[in-house]
Amino acid sequence: MNNIRTAEALRPKSFDDIVGQQHLFGERGVVRKMLESGRITNMIFYGPPGTGKTTAAEIIARESGMSFHRLNATTASLSDVKDILAGTNNIFSAGGILLYIDEIQYFNKKQQQALLEYIEDGRVTLITSTTENPHFYIYNAIISRSSLFEFKPVAPEDCAVAVRRALDYLNAQMGTSKTADDDTVTYIARSTSGDVRHAIVLTENAFFAADGEITKETVDNFNVRVGNFDDDTHYDLLSCLQKSIRGSDPDATVFYLAKLLSLGELISVCRRLQVIASEDVGLAYPMAAVVTRSCCESAKELGMPEAAIPLANAAVLLATSPKSNSAHDAVFAAMDDVEKGYGRVVPKHLQSPLFKGYKYPHSYPNHYVKQQYLPDDIKDKRYYNYGSNKLEDAARQYAEKIKK
Q1: Under 8 Å between Cβ of 232 and 270
Q2: Rounded to an integer, what distance in angstroms lies between the CA atom of residue 274 and that of residue 289?
Q3: How many CB atoms lie under 10 A from the CB of residue 53?
Q4: Were both Cys, which of 14, 244, 248, 265 would link to 252 (CB 3.0–4.6 Å)?
Q5: Could you read off the pLDDT of 53-101 as tens digits, one per residue?
């Protein structure tokens, strides 16, 4: 029997069948309670791969009676969204459309902004998923119109339930009676770091390689991960990498980089390093962002194992560079005021096309003239504070000089 899609065949059909995520779908789970009360809202699912995000979206659509449509942002475009709406006659019916967009971080800001039209006019209930931090990769307006739910790595004891189901299913399909003792089942569950889909695939591979009993040795033929990652998760390791770089520890930096790459996390590493270059090194060494971007693009073009070299260059550079989060703090402070509704009316002399009262700085000594740029209600607000490093100190001195 060829190409048995065990993971797909065993995809849960109800909340009771989901392993793990009890805080969301257990008897007292928040999503389950919400659905039972008849409340359906836009949702953002975030967490590691293989933890049930797509499965949950399908069950929600089924339980709510909505028409389910799934897109993957790595290959889809806005035209695909429009095609779904155009091809559905009952888009304004009681059931409605539940649109699930997987890996939404691959939609750029403009594409995500365009989704708002469909959310706000009620044509679509949107569920999106991402393996990244949604606050970094999802447009704020979508976040503000959605409920965020974290999917956690599935505990080994829960993952073992899925492994047993897979073994029973395969035996039933093949007419065999192959076995695996509890230690082996637990070994599979632990070695996949909370990824249920990976655990099922690993079980399937070991099943066809085993003569009668599946052993740890059989499993090891397919489990190519390096080292013991029982307690490590996608987010934990990325957090360890960033904190090591922020703490200027190049040795810990390359260690966590190596662990992440051994788990196949090349793309996540590239994203996180680029975030670190701007968030933690920032204006203390602005060229770090340029170098990091170049190294990441090189790594993606090379692929593993050679990709480790440019990524190590970028990671060590960031770890040993001076640090500043002044721009990071400034923009998030400003975003907080925007969210609170401050600064709605901008100064008239800055508005196009009249610019009445605007003073052109280049017409004044030192290319500077004092005038108000912030709106009246926050005109004395200070968001940016110079960092204590060579470049920002020079910028501070320059600002003081021209403003005298």
Answers
A1: no
A2: 6
A3: 25
A4: 244
A5: 989 988 988 888 888 888 888 888 888 887 877 755 544 444 578 889 9
Distance, CA of 200 to CA of 188 (rounded, Å): 9
Q: Per-residue DSSP letters for 18-37?
A: --S-HHHHSTT-HHHHHHHT
Q: What is the DSSP string of 108-174?
A: -HHHHHHHHHHHHTTSEEEEEEESS-HHHHS-HHHHHTSEEEEPPPPPHHHHHHHHHHHHHHHHHHH
Is-contact 209 222, C-beta < 8 A? yes
Distance in angstroms (rounded) separating the CA atoms of residues 197 and 183: 19
Q: Where are the beta strands (DSSP E) in 198-341?
A: 213-214
Let me know if 216 is exposed, middle or buried by CB neighbors in 10 A (0-12, 13-18, 19+).
Answer: middle
How far lies 200's CA from each of 122, 162, 379, in Å?
A: 38, 7, 59
Q: Please, are residues 29 and 15 in contact by the beta-carbon 8 Å criterion?
A: yes
Helix-strand-coil percent breakdown of the chain, rounded to 5?
A: 55, 10, 35
**What tokens were used for 147?**
């409920």
In a 10 Å sphere around its CB, with 0-12 CB exposed, 13-18 middle and 19+ buried, how is residue 279 labelled? buried
23 contacts: CB under 8 Å, gap ≥ 6: 29, 30, 152
Q: Are the C-beta atoms of residues 244 and 252 closer than 8 Å to each other?
A: yes
As a whole number of angstroms, the distance between CA 392 and CA 324 comes to 9
